[in-house]
């Protein structure tokens, strides 16, 4: 920790989390994903198509561990960022504790929403 900075390592951790999330979503049928010219998961009318043979690459038990890995990476990224901002002087201790609490609550809310939406598996996502 030279100079009190983590050199943006928290963003790398967050990127890993998002890559894990993609693996989770791609593992089951109904995920709206493009691979080259092939559109998996939904028909052009937006209806869920039957999954291709051997689409599920990992067992449910393994996917559960991926979900926990995603959650832990998100937590690690928050802690890295909050500690970095504190030691670099961008935040004081009071704001460190408040922002850390807020960020951790945000992660728990996101995890709850992902679970409620089955990690978007089998559900059509709204277009952005």
Automatic annotation (TrEMBL):
This is Uncharacterized protein. It comes from bioreactor metagenome.
């Amino acid at each position: 920790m030279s100079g009190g900075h983590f050199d943006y390592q928290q963003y790398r951790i967050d990127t890993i989390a998002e890559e894990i999330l993609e693996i989770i979503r791609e593992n089951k049928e109904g995920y709206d994903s493009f691979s080259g010219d092939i559109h998996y998961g939904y028909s052009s009318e937006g209806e869920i198509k039957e999954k291709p043979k051997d689409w599920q690459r990992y067992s449910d038990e393994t996917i559960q561990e991926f979900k926990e890995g995603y959650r832990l990476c998100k937590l690690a990224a928050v802690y890295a960022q909050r500690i970095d901002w504190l030691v670099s002087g961008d935040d004081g201790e009071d704001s460190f504790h408040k922002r850390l609490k807020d960020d951790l609550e945000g992660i728990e809310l996101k995890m709850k929403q992902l679970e409620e939406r089955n990690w978007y598996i089998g559900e059509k996502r709204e277009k952005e």
